Target: DUF1573 domain-containing protein
Amino acid sequence: AFGHQQIKFAETVHDFGLVKEGQSVTHVFRFQNLGDEPLNIPRVKTS
Model:
């Protein structure tokens, strides 16, 4: 049997609401690898 990666996010979307110009905001997306192989995340895309 082959191992697999399986990612589970605590949340998949975050809305910062109204952000004023020049204001800095951050958010941490927490996730867990439920698979039995190391999780590889080669790139991340935001919008």
About this structure: Residues 5 and 40 are 8 Å apart (CA to CA).
